[in-house]
Write a structure and sequence with these properties.
This protein is α/β, with parallel strands linked by helices and 325 residues long. Helix content is 43%, strand content 19%. Strands 1, 2, 3, 4, 5, 6, 7, 8, 9 and 10 form a ten-stranded mixed β-sheet that branches.
Length: 325
């Protein structure tokens, strides 16, 4: 396929996750990546990727830029897809504003690979006429130094309609899935992506903040009776919040499954929230704790443990952001 006929993709937020999926998409697409802290390295040397699933390779994007505005050129006046892999930090920035210079109305499909709940809302609000593809990623990858990406184990992307979107994106979603499959990505299609986002939160809203605040990894946490008591209390409240929106999750079953899976597949693991705290980087608090808390209150639920966890993590995050200014 010649470059001119290839789908044109702009990746915004090209850290570890963005690098892996840009690499896989580049097998059949023209890729431009927006890089910030790793810009100089990637521009000169590309990404040095070591993946347990995909192997080792130096991935050189077709274009590497520092801002979204720079990505629009006479040669590439618009993009077919904008892939957003930025951390979801509404406390710090609005993703819709960041990608706006490259969004062509009714033409650009916006693809979100982000953690948390409610990440689609600012996109739908600002770009109601653009197709939206919302994706939940299960992948273990990190940028060990600028441009050097390590991926352990397998990966999986779960894609489904975001039911509150104003624009039907069935065709665009099917096309994008085919592009992902050409890059050997594991893709699962579901009927409602928000159900999957809630279910991922059962783990993320419970284990992640407790690990971050205590400094324990998952193995240490599992062995600590008091810490696990908090994990179970928060998890139960998040499950009840999801069920208030029509999802029929069994709380005891979900809690058992989440803990068992952690014991068997996530030993000595530090969640990204904990790693962010250790690096004194802003943590994804609002989309992991704040949004489910707001949703719970909107349904009149009492969720004191979730509320306390949100308050403690928000205070910690405020200190981190204050010190980084």
């Amino acid at each position: 396929m010649s470059t001119i006929n290839k789908p044109k993709i702009l990746t915004v937020g090209t850290g570890a996750v963005g690098a892996i999926y840009s690499w896989r998409l580049s097998k059949s697409c023209h890729l431009t990546t927006v890089c910030r802290s790793n810009y100089e390295t990637v521009k000169k040397e590309g990404f040095e990727i070591d993946s347990a699933k995909f192997g080792k390779e130096i991935f050189r994007p077709d274009n590497v830029v520092q801002t979204v505005s720079e990505a629009i050129t006479p040669e590439i006046p618009y993009y077919d897809y904008i892939l957003v892999t930025l951390k979801a930090l509404p406390e710090c920035y609005d993703v819709a504003d960041i990608i706006a210079p490259a969004v062509t109305s009714e033409k650009t499909t916006i693809v979100l690979i982000q953690n948390g709940l409610g990440v689609e809302e600012p996109i739908v609000r600002q770009f109601p006429n653009n197709p939206l593809i919302s994706i939940v990623a299960y992948i273990g990858t990190s940028q060990t130094r600028p441009g050097k990406i390590l991926m352990v184990g397998n990966e999986s992307l779960i894609i489904g309609p975001y039911l509150q979107a104003k624009t039907n994106s069935d065709v665009e979603r099917a096309d994008f899935i085919e592009i992902l499959k050409e890059g050997d990505v594991d893709v699962q299609l579901v009927d409602d992506v928000e159900r999957v986002r809630w279910q991922k939160l059962f783990w993320n809203a419970a284990f992640s903040p407790v690990c971050a605040l205590t400094g324990m990894n998952t193995t240490q946490l599992l062995a600590n009776k008091e810490a696990m008591r908090v994990v179970k209390l928060v998890m139960k409240e998040v499950i009840e919040s999801a069920n208030a929106y029509g999802y029929g999750f069994n709380p005891e079953e979900q809690i058992h499954n989440m803990i068992t899976r952690t014991e068997t597949t996530a030993k000595n693991y530090k969640p990204s929230m904990q790693l962010d705290k250790e690096r004194s980087s802003p943590m994804e608090i609002e989309v992991i704790l704040g949004v489910p808390l707001k949703r719970a209150k909107a349904k009149g639920l009492q969720v004191p443990n979730l509320e306390l966890m949100h308050s403690l993590c928000s205070a910690t995050n405020a200190l981190i952001m204050c010190n980084s200014v």
